[in-house]
Amino acid sequence: MYQINENYLKLPGSYLFSTIAKKVAAFTDAHQGERVIRMGIGDVTKPLCPAVIQALHKAVDEMGEAETFRGYGPENGYAFLRDKMVEFDYKARGAEIRSDEIFISDGAKSDSGNIQEIFSLDSTVAVCDPVYPVYLDTNVMAGRSGDYDAAKGIYAGITYLPCTAENDFTPAFPAGKAPDLIYLCSPNNPTGAVMRKEALQRWVDYANENGSVILFDAAYEAYITEADVPHTIYECEGARTCAIELRSFSKKAGFTGLRLGATVVPHDLRKKVKRADGTTEEVELHALWSRRHGTKFNGAPYIVQRAGEAVYSAEGQRETAEQVAYYMRNAHYMYETLKKAGFSVYGGVNAPYVWVKTPGDMTSWEFFDTLLEKAAVVGTPGSGFGPHGEHYFRFSAFGTYEDTVEAMARIQALQL
Amino acid sequence: MYQINENYLKLPGSYLFSTIAKKVAAFTDAHQGERVIRMGIGDVTKPLCPAVIQALHKAVDEMGEAETFRGYGPENGYAFLRDKMVEFDYKARGAEIRSDEIFISDGAKSDSGNIQEIFSLDSTVAVCDPVYPVYLDTNVMAGRSGDYDAAKGIYAGITYLPCTAENDFTPAFPAGKAPDLIYLCSPNNPTGAVMRKEALQRWVDYANENGSVILFDAAYEAYITEADVPHTIYECEGARTCAIELRSFSKKAGFTGLRLGATVVPHDLRKKVKRADGTTEEVELHALWSRRHGTKFNGAPYIVQRAGEAVYSAEGQRETAEQVAYYMRNAHYMYETLKKAGFSVYGGVNAPYVWVKTPGDMTSWEFFDTLLEKAAVVGTPGSGFGPHGEHYFRFSAFGTYEDTVEAMARIQALQL
């Protein structure tokens, strides 16, 4: 008689963005003709840039001819893409990452959900609070938490690192024993905050001293505008022995519907393991992830990997930089407008998210409902990202400029 | 101090196809100029058909325009694709599957590796022997096995269902307690055998009687030529309460490099669960997989889903049927030639794999080395699929007809 994985039952209700989608659907059903402006989910709106479209067409043609058709690709991705990443994302930043340390995937969501598998089930986990729900939910599903405390909005057994205006949204080291796995995301989703070089270096040192692994999500690095913010954790000394990095083409080049990402596992991440027969063995996390990747995944589509390569061409670099600049103009506009309207505003400088304090004593969901009902504007309730996100709210800069201006005008008009 | 998932260390050596790739690379290095014919890995060689190429170009163009650009898609895939599957893969076969019971994915390898996650870690697992390694390896990685016995080539705690010429490659029910999870694959990889309607119905009945779940891999259904072989397990009565089906576009339409598959989880698969507070709750496996899918995956690319849709157009159906027929001509040629050459030959009638008994007392790897060294032909050693695959060998029909003929001539010339 089979049994289910009961850890799934610990997860309360549905996934944040599903809930939002349902509320919005109910609103639009009830208010036909009213135009809803969506600044909730972090999905891009600009089409793929010409360099990428051209590369896709070319690759599709290759797939239609016997001489150039490609079936199963190399397990960790095509070298043409990994080599570009080495050059542009690492060498250019003074970071030492080799091509074979990069594993191409179908996106950072898959990787950030799957990476926990290579660690023991009794590993302790630390996440920032608020946090991108995937890090937490996937560890709950694997059984690394106790039960959910609905009143507090937290899981037993998980270490939460509060990130609020009071600490400038920068996590402090937890009291007591160091966690085994530490998820960090900079520029941060949802707060838009960044870890500056010095702050990130302190975490790298902490991980090395305590035998922790940092799972560093760099999905938003293309949005960094300030000089002292690392684009990769491998800009920090010692990161090769303690950090795995997750990268994405979703926000950098608008690939949310195309699906491409990468995980970097340096060979220097090694662990001594005692075998049952008393001998010890040194195991590379690279070997474990390679095995996971090769056994449960069969590569990102060839045509999509060619699209990724095109992002690094001269035209691709220019065109994707223009997209990023377009979204950042939205972020800047929101930041300034909301500030003028009297809100406490954060993020938006090195990230496509603006993070605001809700007015008065409103909860995040009250503010969500108010904006939806009175302004037909959709954002994301901060409490959906964790208890310390309560009384905060996320606006995404991924809409059109016109919609951004219109949404801000509608919010200003509410005089909250 | 973090610890690794030590279950990974139970896996012996590297993945079967990696080992083959390394042996072939060593051979080609040593024998420059000698043309190796690859009939090992089950990768297709024919280019994508015109209907699919056309759909890809059209979808790429849509991604390049703001009005038609698509970002994140629906969590379980676009309805345009799921609806086609309902019509062609289920309704047309007299099987009742609803559109929302289908989850589109990036391929059957991912799904067949990930599906075990929704079951408890102490679930018992049965696999056919020989078997596609992914079913087994992913359960080992999750911790559902004991140690590997290198001498016997089996894991403790796993139920192996021998499939050999003696039982016509059809698994018998295991002695003793019924396993919780039963992996079945028909047409079978690697043996090319099929489960006829009656045989599959017996397994469905067995699963329903014993509270087991069947994980049915239908990746090769397009190769079925005989009438009494089910194309989907849902042709069997009662399958909706005990079976999850895995489907793939890889072999059906040559999508190995494009990545598209689907998992079907009927709403009737329900499990009563006792909560800590003594109450019971009925949980749908559909809800669990939906949660898994929505949390750790972000959809197959829009353009690839459009390509999948095109497979069901009139042209797509005709063109992919031609591809399948082309490969089946190879299978037929191999079957007849090897038989004439005195081999005991199986499969090849409803499957793109021909499964032969190795000549004399040769082990599978001895036969592999002989074919590689003396004929420059690569196949897959049966023992790589499990101990009961020893003394068998798999030939893939996915090459060109010319290569197939040439390979068979080379093997005949060896007079084994």
Automatic annotation (TrEMBL), chains A, B:
Superkingdom in the source lineage: Bacteria
One Pfam annotation, family name?
Aminotran_1_2
Instruction: Write out the GO biological process terms.
Output: lysine biosynthetic process via diaminopimelate, diaminopimelate-aminotransferase pathway
**Catalytically driven reaction(s):** (2S,6S)-2,6-diaminopimelate + 2-oxoglutarate = (S)-2,3,4,5-tetrahydrodipicolinate + L-glutamate + H2O + H(+)
- Return the InterPro entries for the record: Aminotransferase_I/II_large, DapL/ALD1, NHTrfase_class1_PyrdxlP-BS, PyrdxlP-dep_Trfase, PyrdxlP-dep_Trfase_major, PyrdxlP-dep_Trfase_small
Pathway(s) of this molecule: Amino-acid biosynthesis; L-lysine biosynthesis via DAP pathway; LL-2,6-diaminopimelate from (S)-tetrahydrodipicolinate (aminotransferase route): step 1/1
The protein's name in its UniProt record: LL-diaminopimelate aminotransferase
Species, as recorded: Stomatobaculum longum
